[in-house]
Amino acid sequence: MALLSPEFRSRCRKFRQNRKSFRSLVLLLVIFLVTLPAELLCNDKPLILRVDGGWFFPAFRTYTYRDLGGDRDVPVISYRSRTFRQFTDGRMPILDPGVMYRRVDPDVDGASPSPTPGRPRKVWMLHAPVRHSHKSYYDSDKLALQCMANPLPHHVDGSPVPGAIKEGHYLGTDKYGKDVLARLVYGVRLSLLFGFALAFTSTVIGCILGALQGYFGGIVDLAGQRFTEIWGSIPRLMLMMMLSDFVSRRGGLSDFGHVMMLFLILNLTSWMGMAGHMRAMFLRARNQDYVKAAKSLGASDRRIMWIHILPNSLTPIVTFLPFAVSGGVMALVGLDFLGFGLDYPTPSLGEMLSQGQENIGAWWIIVPTFITLSAMLILLTFIGDGVRNAFDPRQKS
Amino acid sequence: MLTYIIKRLLLMIPTGIGIITVFFVFSELVPGGPLDQVETMIMDEARSASEGGATFGGDEGGGGGGIAIDPAMRMQIKRKLGLNHNRFERYMRMLLWWSPDSLISSKEVEDGAFAKVAFRDRKLVVFRSDDTYHVYLNGVDTGQGLGELTFDKQEKQFVSAMDADVRFDPITGQQVGGTTALTRITVRVKTEVFDEISYAASGARVQVKEAREEVYLAQSLTGAIRNWDNWHGYFLLKFPNSITKNKKSYVLIAERLPVSMRLGIISFFLTYSACLVLGIAKAVKNGTRFDAATSVLVLIGYGIPGFVLAVFLISMFGPGSDALVHLIPLRGLHSPPEIYNALGPLAKLWDNIHHLIAPIICLTIGGFAGLTMLTKNSVLEQFDQLYAVAARARGLSQRRVLFKHILRNSLIPLVTGFPARFVMMFFTGSVLIEKIFSLDGIGLLGYTALVERDYPLMVSNLFVFTYIGLFCRLLSDIGYVIVDPRISFEEKR
């Protein structure tokens, strides 16, 4: 296999010797793997719930009170609500759903639906370290949502206000009363997944288009070159903003659909750098002896491109990848920041950044977001630098 | 070389077609274009105007607050936005289009300055009978009883057919007779020729402030071709008016250009000089701790996106009440005029610098890495060249070898990249930075145009942006050849 070719391995070794870059890679992978199960880290629902000996996993499934041994067919929305506490204390009124919203007339209904005290239930919960998710509100127990809550104790008009850390908001809340830390964790996961996916698809697209151009040359190459030139000379950010605006105005998209649409839009331009590199590699390779030999042996074009040339053209792919990831992350953040990206409940670092700008005093939003985002991108830059040093034959050590 | 340049220039045409096609396809696919935007604007205006209790918008007002835009007005807005044409014509009008409005034989032109104007394609057209000019405002609701106007040649006035007393002065457009002020017609006359007739119907129904009906003169075929007004399209640099700002798009762009240019030029020179010094220093001290440390610093700068840093800086050091230190002013390139104008020249300079520091930091921070490394590598490369070794062997000092011999050769790759980088500096990231620091440049202009759905301004902006980019890239490629004659583009093909 090409991946195990000695040259490739020696370059990997060279990369590993670059301590700064290798550590960055490890650190980034750690960040990615830690944030990947974000639902386990930040969740308003308990991860494990035991009611009278039964096992429940509210973080992954929605249960009704009947599932938990109660009488109501009402889903449990919050495990911190008064209703749930009444349920566990055995004080929950037993109500027929049909009667719930009707004024009860004892003469008609016969029996009064007065709360019949049940028995207290034995409840044990395992909570996530952060008891809020990226879209859960402050606390359903409190009537008013607390928005823009400062995590530290401070004074408002001379009177002290306790910090939101007490409520489990380690980094306070944003302007919609959602937990900043949770949004940060979910946002990092989404950004990294988005960046990786974008890097992958744009590499694949770029490789295919570049390879076709370089290998076949002639009219294919000319057409491809012209197209790239035209497409590439349109200011990218403006184009992305425009398309994203058009898409979101057309409407009818779910949150996930919106992410995918944005992904497709960013794919429209992100392949161009890769295609240029691959074109050059294939252009050079197609006149080399090993390709000519394969051709004279009757190998098909596809086989030559896939088996012969591609393994010899891995350098640009590998060097390109870290920068493609950081480019993808940055594009997403930029679009989100300008308001042309994901819709609100979707966790997004760019959106947090714009909240930080709107509310200049809210350091608990801007500082963590800035640090996270910069750290992520700096790590990617270090990795990219290391990879380039290891793989670029022109670089002198 | 010349053929190469011509080739490149010709290749710019499909780029423009591409931009417009992309834009057109998407704008056609998507609901809620500028028509909705303008209608909302007018309704808002009407709502605030009708607050005093005046009836407005007629009786068929259904939806929002009892105000509706009547069909005639909608037609006029459509016409103003160029939406009255069919899809193909709309597309072609963006690219290149010639629409003669009425053609007559050249003999008729000799007869009089204007001979025959007709109502065609929903446009007002004046035509000539023996002594009178009949003006028909067809196809549009003319308000109450404008009906037919005749032009009285003796008195040089328009006479309403409904009420003979109602007359209009063709030059001022004022009503000069009659008691019933039904309508007002504005006629502008240039020389002897009716250039443009516009009317404003100030009836009870809808007040149309700027509804203009253009009158196209009858003209000969050659005249019609020569007439610049008959030509349309971005390729002729005929940019339509901005919808929201009510100004020519290119005027708006020209107004904003200096701001973006100032930012671009300053950050460009700053980056170049800093990178040169740093790159040379790093080459001389290659492998030392200084080299490694600066490499890390420069890479960190490359990693942090400028706009992210900008947001951070403005919230930490900006004018907000919770900022650590108030170092960054709120917005713009200088203080508000009432303060700024009172300052002395030195204070003015400081004021400008003060406002520019933060945006410039954010614009340049990402640009150091590439250029510094390029400088370093190209100086290092020259270190081992024979001529440098020879110079050292002759006993020249290291400093002399570096500055007199090596530097000159190692600067070639830098100089060749000069124009391309200049352009890059000009455009990259400026939308974000300009928005964050509220600098009124072209980036912000494009952004607001997009937010306000000002399609003409948006396309103009995109178009101008793209073409400036293309021309600068061509110039930079020509620059390559001039600086380094070893490069030839013809042989590459």
Concise overview:
With 397 residues, chain A is mainly α. Chain A is built from 16 helices and 5 strands.
Describe this structure in words.
The complex is a heterodimer of chains A (397) and B (493). With 397 residues, chain A is mainly alpha-helical. Chain A folds into two domains: 248 residues, MetI-like fold, CATH 1.10.3720.10; 79 residues, no CATH class. A three-stranded antiparallel β-sheet of chain A has the order 2-1-3, with no helix packed on it. In chain A, a hairpin with a 2-residue loop joins strand 1 and strand 2. The longest helix of chain A has 37 residues. Chain A is elongated. Chain B has 493 residues and is an alpha+beta fold. Chain B folds into two domains: 118 residues, Rieske [2Fe-2S] iron-sulphur domain (Rieske Iron-sulfur Protein), CATH 2.102.10; 235 residues, Orthogonal Bundle (MetI-like fold). Helix content of chain B is 54%, strand content 8%. Chain B has 19 helices and nine strands. In chain B, strands 2-3-4-5-6 form a five-stranded antiparallel β-sheet, with no helix packed on it. Chain B has a two-stranded antiparallel ribbon with strand order 1-9. In chain B, strands 7-8 form a two-stranded antiparallel ribbon. The longest helix of chain B has 36 residues. The interface between A and B is large, with 46 and 54 residues.
Helical content of chain B stands at 40-55%
- Oligomer status: heterodimer
Q: Give me the CATH superfamily of the largest domain in chain B.
A: MetI-like
Low-confidence stretches of chain B: 52-66, 102-148, 170-174, 179-219
Q: Major sheet of chain B, described briefly?
A: 5 strands, antiparallel
Tell me the greatest interface. Answer: A-B, 46 and 54 residues
Give the name of the CATH architecture of the largest domain in chain A. Orthogonal Bundle
Q: How much beta of chain A, percentage-wise? A: under 5%
